[in-house]
Design a protein that fits this description.
With about 375 residues, the chain is of the alpha+beta class. It is built from 11 helices and 10 strands. The longest helix has about 30 residues.
Length: about 375
């Protein structure tokens, strides 16, 4: 594991990437606020412990449908059924560990370290994918717990013969009557996905699949329609690279203020951004920057309905720092003499007040020819100079 991590770190350094998103977000709350004091850590540990014990670990062991989406900031209350299944499974784990003759300390230590780290991480890292390596250990402990319970019952009721046969039958019944059918059912969607000949054949019966198709379609649009020297930012540069004809792109911080994103776009000479709903961080982080600086962004393509209230579309914006206002400011608002470059190529040059043309100014067309000159009021010309 250490060798693999060293190789991964060396690969990151070779492309100028330092640190890790997981490390960077360790001291952040779900909404990107900083952790402050023991009360925040206590709340995180309590929330994550309950989620793993009552939801995520039972899901991978029982293969039951979980009710909450870890990627959403909504907290779905735990049901009575989840409490019963979670406590029952915890009891089986304890019984299974006590029934081990060797390897108990090693197994429990490995599980404790893995789950312990996840309990300390932000709630957004909840879910089943982060505990995949230890799922076989959970299954083993549950089955071994059943075996231990049978042995205890034999001692209580003082049966004369060995419990080995009944233990074996109990484990086989649990495996063939419950686990195998459940696991087979859980693999159905994955098997169907593996049989698809193309991503275009993805069934559109889920929002996740719809968003996958939109993101890949947007990547292909960039391949076919954007200039070769386009500098692009998107949530998943690796996937974009695969479906955009091997075009390079750049990622962005999962959480950042609009001005931080804006400065990054300017610094790296970015001219296109993709905002998609497959990975929510695009709307969480990039979209606020677009809303704060609308004059700098021009929507050139969208996939999905712009006014959809159920599922946001995938958006491709052209970014140009040349557009917008350049000049004197007061309290962050255009005030004094300045220039405003419009997205259609026109330029206003003159006096500004309260963020709008107010006073004497001139409007030019895209070729620099004068269109009109005169006195402006709140962005509208009121007096035209006679030539």
């Amino acid at each position: 594991m250490g060798t693999a991590k060293m190789s991964w770190d060396a690969r990151n350094r070779s492309v100028g990437r330092e640190g890790s998103d997981y490390q960077a977000t360790f001291y952040k709350k779900t909404n990107n606020e900083d952790m402050e004091g023991w009360s925040d850590w206590k709340a995180r540990i309590k929330s994550n412990s309950a989620s793993f014990v009552l939801r995520w670990i039972p899901e991978v062991t029982y293969m039951k449908k979980v009710v909450a989406d870890p990627q959403k900031n909504e907290h779905v209350p735990f049901s009575t059924k989840e409490w019963v299944l979670g406590i029952l499974l915890l009891f089986l784990f304890i019984a299974g560990s006590l029934n081990m003759d060797c390897g108990r300390i090693l197994m429990l230590t490995y599980i404790a370290i893995t789950v312990g780290v996840l309990i300390l991480y932000p709630e957004q890292y909840g879910g089943t994918r982060y505990i995949t390596p230890i799922v076989p250990l959970f299954i083993f402990l549950a089955l071994n717990g059943i075996s231990a319970i049978v042995a205890v019952l034999y001692k209580i009721f003082k049966f004369g013969h060995s419990p080995l046969l009944v233990q074996s039958i109990a484990i086989l019944l649990c495996t063939f009557a419950f686990l195998i059918p459940k696991y087979t059912e859980a693999q159905t969607e994955t098997k169907n996905m593996a049989n698809l000949k193309s991503w275009k054949d993805l069934p559109t019966n889920s929002l996740s699949n719809v968003n996958v198709v939109r993101f890949i379609t947007a990547s292909e649009y960039c391949r076919d329609s954007l200039p070769e020297d386009a500098r692009i930012v998107c949530r998943k540069p690796e996937l974009f690279y695969m479906f955009s004809g091997y075009r390079p792109s750049k990622g962005f911080p999962k959480y950042a203020e609009p001005d931080t994103i804006y400065n990054m776009l300017c610094r790296d000479s970015i001219n296109y951004i993709i905002i998609d709903n497959w990975f929510r961080h695009a709307f969480v982080t990039l979209h606020p920057c677009v809303k704060k600086h609308p004059e700098k962004f021009k929507l050139i393509k969208h996939f999905g309905d712009l006014d959809s209230k159920d599922n946001a579309p995938t958006l491709i914006y052209l970014f140009n720092d040349y557009w917008g206002y350049h000049g004197e400011m007061k309290d962050g608002v255009a005030e004094g003499q300045g220039v405003f470059h419009m997205q259609d190529g026109r330029t206003y040059e003159g006096a500004f007040s309260n963020g709008k043309p107010n006073g004497w100014g001139t409007m030019y067309d895209a070729k620099g020819n004068e269109i009109v000159q005169g006195e402006w009021h709140d962005g509208t010309i009121h007096y035209v100079k006679k030539h």
